[in-house]
Design brief:
The protein is of the alpha+beta class. The protein contains 17 helices and six strands. Helices cover 60% and strands 8% of the residues. The strands form two sheets. The chain has a four-stranded mixed beta sheet with strand order 3-6-4-5. The protein has a two-stranded antiparallel ribbon with strand order 1-2. Helix 5 packs across helix 8. The protein is globular, with a radius of gyration of 30 Å.
């Protein structure tokens, strides 16, 4: 399943950058965050729609070594590479995109234009770095971008659509529409053919009964048994009813299957974007939303780590907890923080944003104390698993210390596979649920 590059890019657009951008542009942090939330899927979609253009691939390739990720607020706005790239992917629709984002987020058109450059710089820089780290050539980059087409429209915030940017969906996803149209047309043709066949069979049966009835009258002149013509008529009626129900059943089945397959395809794509594992498609896909931290909007899942922690702290339950024993059973799993396989010092791209969110929560509630926990699956040597999970927990603690909230981190512990639930013989995708980092409140 395909990688969701938007998750990678969000690591470059965390609360720290939002705060800096708000200060530099003279806008509210919530407005900046809202604008970025709308621009990111639009920019990724624009790149995906132009993935075969050499200029687009070249810009992404060059971005990995341009240093643009280290100077998003300054370098992106003045970079001719960014402005040329935007013209290439959006053409004369750049103005419509900026206007729509400004209206949607409440920031000025000037700020929306600067944020468009910033998000584009973060996007090409992140994809370029990923391509370089994974040895992707031009064809690999194009393929990666093509894979994003199925998810970008579903990640647009409520109130925004491709049409609101002046970007007709038929131009972006025309092939998908043609496929749906073809499937629908085929289903209609099959249903119509079945109904026509059933009608023809009923009509033929009726003609045969009529002929038999007329022959029976001619041969028996009213003296023959009534069952000679009544029994075939009853059988014909039963057959006609059966055929009619079969047609209805086929129509219902065809319609349901077409809808279900379509939904499964879209959901599976969105899921792959989030988890990166080949799991069955769930009913809905998780997408980041605005999580209110005392007026500051953090990007996170509704019901995810940030949302749960903030709700708990605001409820007063932490303050009222008598001791650590009252808190030790409730852990909050990180939704986005993941380490590279076998490493305790390298985070997967997209992880930093949630660490920044945790820092913001701790700063907003300076009396709160936490404990970090690391976990592995059941495979491998347990002593090594404990060592690895401990090192990862210590790494996160060190990152929080560096961010200025170290006094609120009481402990970092590694539990190895002690609490793993998935059997070691299960697939890697299934065991991924046991490989995680978590945090709990402590006293």
């Amino acid at each position: 399943m395909s990688l969701n590059v938007i998750d990678l890019i969000k690591g470059q657009l965390g609360p720290a950058l939002v705060s800096q951008a708000a200060s530099q542009f003279g806008e509210s942090e919530s407005g900046i965050s809202k604008a970025i939330g709308g621009l990111l899927p639009a920019v990724v979609g624009g790149l995906a729609n132009n993935a075969d253009k050499p200029g687009v691939v070249d810009a992404i390739t060059q971005a990995s070594s341009s240093g643009i990720l280290g100077n998003l607020l300054g370098g992106s706005s003045s970079s001719p590479v960014i402005s040329n790239l935007l013209s290439s992917i959006f053409g004369d629709k750049v103005g419509a995109l900026v206007n729509s984002i400004a209206s949607f987020s409440g920031v000025s058109n000037t700020s929306a234009g600067s944020l468009l450059n910033l998000v584009t710089g973060a996007t090409v820089g992140t994809i370029g770095k990923y391509a370089a780290d994974n040895n992707l050539g031009a064809s690999g980059i194009s393929s990666l971008l093509h894979d994003q087409k199925g998810i970008v429209s579903s990640l647009l915030p409520a109130g925004l659509s491709l049409a609101s940017f002046g970007l007709g969906a038929e131009n972006w996803f025309g092939q998908a529409k043609e496929t749906v149209s073809s499937v629908t047309s085929t289903a209609k043709d099959n249903i119509a053919e079945s109904v026509a066949t059933a009608r023809e069979n009923v009509s033929e049966g009726a003609r045969e009964v009529r002929e038999r009835f007329e022959n029976n009258n001619n041969n028996n002149q009213g003296g023959g048994s009534i069952w000679k013509w009544l029994l075939p008529l009853l059988l014909l009626i039963a057959a006609a009813y059966f055929l009619w129900k079969q047609c209805e059943k086929k129509q219902t089945t065809t319609t349901t299957t077409t809808t279900s397959d379509s939904a499964a395809t879209n959901t599976a794509t969105d899921t792959a974007a989030t988890t990166g594992t080949a799991t069955p498609a769930p009913a809905t896909a998780k997408t980041d939303e605005d999580i209110d931290l005392n007026g500051v909007m953090l990007k996170g899942y509704k019901g995810g780590m940030e949302d749960q922690m903030i709700t708990f702290l605001k409820s007063g339950n932490y303050k009222n907890a008598a001791d650590d024993a009252a808190l030790k059973d409730k852990w909050y799993d990180f939704d986005h923080v993941n380490f590279k396989m076998g490493s305790a010092t390298e985070l997967e791209a997209g992880s930093q944003g949630q660490l920044d969110n945790l820092v913001a929560i701790l700063k907003a509630f300076p009396d709160a104390k936490i404990k970090i926990g690391g976990y592995t699956d059941k495979t491998g040597n347990e002593a090594n698993n404990v060592k690895l999970s401990k090192a990862r927990a210590e790494y996160i603690k060190a990152a929080l210390v560096k961010a200025g909230v170290g006094a609120q981190v009481l402990e970092a512990e590694g539990y190895g596979s002690k609490f793993a639930k998935v059997d070691a013989t299960a697939s890697d995708a299934e065991r991924a649920a046991d490989r995680k980092m978590a945090v709990r409140f402590a006293k």
